[in-house]
Amino acid sequence: MTSALGGASIDGSAYTDVVDLAGRSPGWLDTAVTTWSAYGLAVFALLMVLGWWQARRTGAVTAVTALAAPVAVVLAYGVDAVLKLVVREDRPCRSLRVRTLEACPAPGDWSFPSNHAAIAAATAVALVFVSRRLGAVAAVAALAMAASRAWVGVHYPHDVAVGVLVGVLVASAAMILLRRWARTLARHLSATVLRPLLAAP
């Protein structure tokens, strides 16, 4: 299959500037960014668990909202994945043949938009509906995740920017829709075996 979008024509020079900067940066910084890029999504999962744990002490409605956060993130990932298949943009590290911190993904592992950025941004938005403090922490972490994906060389800047946009829009829509039904869901779930998920013992 051929790529439908030539990303290098959009911001290829900005991408090479970032990759060159990464190549000249101290080893400890590159190691930290590479580690965050590879494993940082686990932090977002932990933040959602923490949001749910705290929400149980606030009330059933807040707990239902917290339980919906992973659903919003999965929806954002799904939309992002569909866009990847539609656009089919080659990875910049494959098109531009540059040396990157992270190994270049295999052909057919499309670049646009960034899954990592979408997941991180969706988590941040969903958590804002649960706890503004956790949402703020997740937002900073999401920006760091998006930047790291360009730094390690696997995405163009526009990949991560659109990934963030997808995550924000899908998660916002999902959480706003959920908010309309949260009280009803909380009432129904409180009468089932799932009640322990909604209230602290």
UniProtKB/TrEMBL annotation:
InterPro entries: PAP2/HPO, PAP2/HPO_sf
Membrane topology term: Multi-pass membrane protein
Highest taxon above the source species: Bacteria
Keyword Kinase among record annotations: no
Keywords assigned: Cell membrane, Hydrolase, Membrane, Transmembrane, Transmembrane helix
Transmembrane parts of this sequence: 36-53, 60-79, 110-129, 136-154, 160-178
Subcellular location: Cell membrane
Claim: Ribosomal protein is one of the keywords in the record: no
Matching Pfam families: PAP2
Protein name, entry field: Phosphatase PAP2 family protein
The organism of origin for this protein: Streptomyces endocoffeicus
